[in-house]
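Same chain as my last thread, 355 residues:
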Amino acid sequence: MQPQDRPEAEHDGGAVDLRSDTVTRPTAAMYDRMRLAPIGDDGLDGDPTARALEAAAAAALGKEAGLFVPSCTMANLLATLAQVQRNQQVVLEAQAHMYTAERGAATFTGAFHVGIPGIDGAMDLDRLEDALDGSGTRLQTGLIGLETSHNNAGGTVLALDHMRTAHELGRSRGIPVHLDGARLFNAAVYLGVAPQAIARHADTVSLCLSKGLSAPVGAILAGPRAVVDHARRLRRMLGGTQRQVGIMAAAGLEAIEVMGDRLAEDHARARLLSAGLNALHPNLRASCAQTNIVQVDLSRTGRSSADWVTALAGAGLLVRPLGRDRLRCVTHRHIDGAAVSAALRAFRVCLDAIP
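reply #2:
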């Protein structure tokens, strides 16, 4: 096993990459499973390893069926296409990833996306109820979207009571709820529950395999069999059918079966990073991490996020800007305690360089 495959490996002195947990590389066990995976043509008679992944993921999420797709963006798009009629609306929290980063999907769906204000990723339920009123000339709602953990809210996790209420609001009106669960396993670890305890509060669920779970590519859409069957047909129309995809699905199986529990390590290192940043200087304000995302408020430093990204890269730390005055730092399997210490040193160097 290579050092990068071990989460406990000491930092090797190279650049620390906190841009995203999508930079994670497959584990040695994933490579082994990929090499030995039974494969077939998923566009013809099916790929056995892909089918095994779909069944395992559906079981883990407590759903009837699953569908392996290239990305979580496609999973969310398929969930919309399979459940929403043209000229209906999709109601989401205003900072939800599906709203801020994937709204281009509306050009394919013919649906209108509506953002509902929220706090820490949890939409105002009174405003949600009002938005569901399709009387008069208002659009009918075809789908309610939730997200946990919530990317733009700094990896915060929705309370189960909030999700339950939103689901009940939808059910009482015959409106399905879709959960963008790209980092659902992170949310489950934070809450100390099984993933299906969260997924039960949504009709369909997406799950990304290539973030903290460390698979190289892919995502799952899970839900009622009829919806997933419809989504499978739509996947073909979108060009998402992959042939001997079992090679990639094998890594996804390892991700689903093995990699969830270790996410607690990423959360602990995010908390360590947050505490360290807040101790460096009062002009740096880091969010209190619930999962593996730390947002850093730079507004008091007099330098823009773009300036900080450049300066930190020069000091050996890779991060991403979040607007003009914030940075986003994401811990993952390749970030150990030594890497956190190196990241804090990089911030210290950049702080000392400010006139």
